[in-house]
Amino acid sequence: MTIEQRTFIPLTDIVGIEFECGHCQSRHLIPLKRFDRILYECPNCHEQFISITPIERTLTRSDESILRAFIKALDDMQLLKVKIRLELSEGTK
Ligand SMILES: [Zn+2]
Asked: How many angstroms separate the alpha carbon of residue 32 from the centre of ligand 1?
């Protein structure tokens, strides 16, 4: 017998966004309901988190516009009648 275990996160369980600084590894959690400002830089070491200019890989969208679209989509999806869950890879359990 084989038992398969998979882990899912319902979108309604997502309550915050955490930023981890690539320089000092400090973490900053922002509750989704209070996400009214973009955290452009690390509050600890001032390393840039979010670029307001288009990024090289697309040349059309900035980090800021991608993050704002993600937050808006996440917020809008909370109201859908269908329940959407995201599956985690096995390495993240
Ligand atoms: Zn930092």
From this structure: 21
pLDDT tens digits, residue range 50-78?
Answer: 877 776 666 677 888 888 888 888 888 88
CA of 41 to the centre of ligand 1 (A): 8
> How far is it, in rounded angstroms, from Cα 32 to Cα 30?
6
Burial 38-70 (b: 16+ CB within 10 A, else e): eeeebeeeeeebbeeeeeeeeeeeebbbebeee
pTM of the model: 0.69
